[in-house]
Design a protein that fits this description.
Layout (H helix, E strand, L loop, with lengths): L3 H11 L6 H12 L4 H17 L1 E2 L6 E2 L13 E8 L2 H10 L4 E5 L17 H10 L4 E4 L5 H13 L6 E4 L15 H9 L2 E2 L3
Parallel strand pairs: 3-4, 3-5, 5-6
Antiparallel strand pairs: 1-2, 6-7
Bound molecules: zinc ion.
């Protein structure tokens, strides 16, 4: 409607979660206005930098710009526990609740055979290798309480049979179908403290 470039920018913004056509137009015109240009250029620069430099930690698969990530190399963490979460957003929610001080493993998804996402795609071999090489006493399954999250937790629990590792699941207080990142800190803390042992 205006210019091909402007249309492209609006379309690109529209493709982001939570941004509809109206918001995309507002942002576009705001960035094009004289006083919006510096923040637009800064945004473009940080976006390029972030996307090109952020990678997945080789130990926990969380987003990081240093290897291993700050959580994996933090000596204050309890290194005998690993908490398995689906997304970096879930990890952040748990960190913000202060309910947990151990290590993490981020699946960056869940098992979804129909979409071709199997154990390999979510890093299960990396997780199992950590359990073999590190001294881990407890693995906490903190995947979402959705069908996929539960199936993924069940699969991981089954893989733990050969290991002498306690396997637990956060459950209490987390609503069915609940996605961790949307839970408040109190609910998450409660869910961690009242976690239940899973049969392997
Ligand atoms: Zn890490």
């Amino acid at each position: 409607l205006t210019s091909p470039l402007i249309d492209q920018l609006i379309e690109s913004l529209c493709a982001l979660p939570g941004i509809g056509p109206k918001s995309a137009q507002r942002i576009t015109f705001d960035l094009l206005a004289k006083k919006g240009q510096p923040k637009g250029l800064k945004l473009a620069e940080i976006l390029t930098k972030t996307i090109t430099r952020i990678t997945n930690c080789t130990l926990c698969q969380n987003y990081t710009e240093s290897l291993p990530c700050w959580l994996c190399q933090n000596s204050k963490r309890n290194t005998s526990m690993i908490c398995v979460v689906e997304t970096p957003a879930d990890l952040l929610a748990i960190e913000q609740s202060n309910a947990y001080s151990g290590l993490y493993f981020v699946l960056n998804g869940h098992l979804s055979p129909l979409d071709g996402i199997g154990p390999q795609e979510i890093g299960i071999p990396i997780l199992l290798n950590r359990l073999k090489t590190e001294t881990i006493h407890e693995l906490i399954l903190a995947t979402n309480l959705t069908m996929e999250g539960k199936a993924t937790a069940g699969y991981i629990a089954n893989q733990l049979t050969p290991f002498n590792i306690k396997c637990t699941r956060i459950a209490h207080g987390v609503p069915m179908g609940g996605e961790l990142e949307y839970l408040d800190s109190g609910t998450l803390t409660h869910a961690f403290h009242s976690r239940i042992t899973v049969e392997k």
